[in-house]
Amino acid sequence: MQRTHRPTFLNLARIRFPVGAVASIGHRISGIVLVCALPFVFYALERSLRSEAAFGAMIELMRSPAGRAALVLLAWASAHHLFAGIRHLLMDVGVGASLGAARTSAYATLGVAVAVAAATALLA
Amino acid sequence: MKLFSGRRAFVLQRLSALVLLAYFTAGALRLALGPPVTYVQWQTWSAQPLAAAALLVLVAALLGHVWVGIRDVVLDYVHSPGLRLAVLGAAAAGLAFLASWTVLILVAHVNSA
User: Fold this and answer.
1) CB-CB: which of B17, B39, B69 is closest to A55?
2) Three-class SS of residue A123?
3) Where residue B64 sits, what CATH number does that domain have?
4) I need a labelling partner for B100 at 20 to 30 A (CA). Which of A23, A40, A74, A115 fits?
């Protein structure tokens, strides 16, 4: 058999990931997003207790366009991380670990996280 | 850092996850169902020693959970031992800074009340 030397491309855009893999990598990505937000969260805690003016300025900042975009991103990341985490904890104790149930809960995790982000965009 | 690796890290990650789940649920319910929190409410509530202690438990669970998460991600993607040590060291220093900063803020806050 002739060995070919043609290159093999792994085109990530064309590989179809199973939905469980998407939910799982989303858990990791949302965790990294939340870690990046950590300094701002602690800064907000400090400001919120400093004075009424600083508290008000923080609320104003959250209502600015950039602040609202950040809130929507954080709402998605929090919701995805939370629900994907609950899903993993339940699987640790054997709940919903069958393939069918795991696929259903993966779809639910992705959908609910996007719904929470959308609700935040509408209400915040 | 034997204390926060291996099986202990596994247990710490899951226990802190349950603590965070409880706080997150309570906080989300309050924000979603109650009226907006005013500065005076937040200021007087958090100045009570028990409330400040509850906030410290939250921050401890959060930072412990974050440490295990950062560690998992770094061990997966950073392979050079020197760089790995540098990144984990920087993360540990950053988390220790946030922890001590929070203690200072809350202790000063409770004492000022």
Assistant:
1) B39
2) helix
3) 1.20.1300.10
4) A74
The domain ranges of chain A are 19-123
pTM of structure: 0.90
**CB of B109 within 8 Å of any CB in chain A?**
yes
Q: Is A32 within 8 Å of B73 (Cβ atoms)?
A: yes
The residue in chain A having the minimum alpha-carbon distance to the alpha carbon of residue B14 is: A89
Query: What pLDDT digit, counting tens, does each position of A10-56 carry?
Result: 777 777 889 999 999 999 999 999 999 999 999 999 999 999 999 99
The one-character DSSP state at B31 is: H
The architecture of the domain spanning A19-123 is Up-down Bundle (1.20)
pLDDT digits (tens, 9 = 90+) for B36-71: 899 999 999 999 999 999 999 999 999 999 999 999
pLDDT band for position B31 (cuts 50, 70, 90): confident
Chain B closest-CA separation from residue A103 CA (Å): 22
Q: Which of residues 41-100 of B touch A (CB under 8 A)?
A: 42-43, 46, 66, 69-70, 73, 94, 98
